[in-house]
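Predict structure. Chain length: 250.
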Amino acid sequence: MRLAICPLLKKTYLLLTFATFASLLSAQPGLWLTRQSQVDSVPILYPNLEAVGSLIIGYIPTQPGEESDIDDLSPLTGIKKIYGDLYIRKNPRLKSLYGLHLVDTVFTGIHSEILENDSLPNLAGLDNLRFVGGFFNIKDNPLLQTTEGLGELRGMVKATIADNPLLQNLDLPNLERVYDYLNLLHNAVQTAHLPKFRRTDGLSINGELLTDLSGFAALDTIGRFSSTATCVGQPSIGQPCWLGGHAVWA
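Prediction complete.
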């Protein structure tokens, strides 16, 4: 027997959930760190810190030309939840995200970005991250070669991975769902490994070096779709392959 949920009760529940989240967000310190000395001061100023509001490491897009001197995030060890946005941008000396390895959830309502970090080869250090809300953008990281480090990621709302010229390996072994869309644009992706990725409302793969879509074979629900890659076993140009439980044209 299915139970009908009163619309007013549902609306009240959503309002209470939002109010609870808002109170959690306002109760956490927000950190904007542009210097290594500031990073080093976090465990002194906030001992036993496990949750933050927004966490900005480096500079946001409204500050063109600015770059941080941050090269070590280990003093941030202990943070497990981010209730606002996560920005990691314009950190030319940063080679590892270790220090964020206990973060399991980013509840962002707007953006999370890993953007324009000139020395970052992979995403190791985000090893415990399971869910990212809002927009999740990984863009313009010139030395990024793999998504290694996102091995525990289960779900995202919206994500764009774009303009990382050395990114050859898209490895998201535990990703199950992207609620809105996943865009892969103008990287150098040659291999994709998403064996549990089953559902998304939109998938776009354009400007990549993928020769087939076998890495997305687990998809059984898909909305919008576009790709410049071919489907596994596609007999000829113009013939459909099966992706997301129905015929699509790559």
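Summary: Residues 1-6, 9-26, 233-240 have pLDDT under 50 and may be disordered.
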